[in-house]
Structures are given as C-alpha cells and as structure tokens.
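Human: For the file, kindly provide a plain-text protein record giving the amino acid sequence and the backbone structure tokens, at your earliest convenience.
Assistant:
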Amino acid sequence: MVAIIIDDMGHALAPAQRLAELGMPLTLSVLPHSSQAKAVARFAHAKGLEVMLHLPMEPKGYPGHNPGQGVLLCDMTRERLLEVLRDDLSRVPLAAGVNNHMGSSFSLHPELLEPVLLELKRRGLFYLDSFTSADSQGLATAQRLGLRTGRREVFLDHQAGREAIDGQMRRLLELAKERGRAVAIGHPRPDTIKALGEWAPRLRRQVTLVTVSELLDASSDPNQGH
C-alpha cells in the first residue's frame, strides 16, 4: 500500500490538472497563502484527489529560511498558534488532513505541536509528519493525542533529475513490500510529474495506490495487520 503526496500545491492550476490526468489516487497538499489555493483544492477534490493543508512551520535558520505566510512560529502563544492555524485551514477548503511545510525547528517541540494537533483532532483531520527533521516529535505527539497519523518515508525529488527520482521510486517500492505500506512526498515539478506518469503502470502492478487517509485508516485497522 503506497500513498503519494504532492507538496507545495496552490501556486497555479496547471500542475494539478496534469496530476489529475495521471489517474492516480494522489494527495495534493496546498500551501494556504498560495495564489490559487482555493481553486486548486476545489479542483483536486472534484477530480477525486485528496486535499491536505500544507501547514508552514518554523524551520531551523528562520527567517533566512522562510516557509512563507501563515507560518507557525516557536515564539507564538497558544492563542496565536490557533489563530494562524484556523486562518490557514480556512484557505484550503475540503482538506482531509494536514502535513507540515518545513518545520525542522517547530516540530521538535511537543508543547507547541499539542494545541495544533488537538485542533486538528477536534475537526476530524489527520496529521502526516513530513519528517523534515530526524528528531521531529510530530508523529509521537499525534499518536499520544489519538490522532490518525503517520509519517513520510521517502522524498521522491529531494535531488533533482530523473535518475535520482527513479532511484527514489525504486526505494519506495522496496519499502512498501518490506513494511506493507509507505508514504512518499514529491513536488509539482515537470520531472516529477513525468516520472509519476511513467512509473504508474509498475506501481499499479506491484502495490495498491491509495490516498493518505486510506493508508492511515488501514494502519489503524487491527484486521489489516502491519
């Protein structure tokens, strides 16, 4: 079972249209302050793709390394964190869940994550830890609070170029066969979209492609095993 997330969506409609044409059950994660956030979310949902909020969180090296508007910062009060979160959620309609954009600093702090994750739980949303830091507390905190949750195992296009992407696709398949399920994150770059299209037949033959929520639902079902 494999779920593929495409991050950084919302800057234009065209990449979402190309991704929809692949006929794969992709999950599109939309940046809240991107110029086409609402249009992309509504289009994706209408095409049967899953929508997530790509929630900006403070990275190490902030503000030099800047995740953009709508970011959750380490020095914010609980009230301010919730205010920013609710505004971000309002900008991405039809979102089934959330994953973090950047966040290598914010995600280290369970006390900051907790109010955010509790709000997601209250709304019936899942949380997927993008795992931008090996020390991220996102998954553990979400598990402790009883959210549907998981984490990213593979970045498809952390290194640019088809050779690197193809290597990550092979790794994704290996992990899925070894563990029974795996989550990959890619970006709406031409090379990545082309690779997904070319790998789609092999992926369909070798694994079950699902949305993130389907994968998390199966993970929490005791009848599914691990």
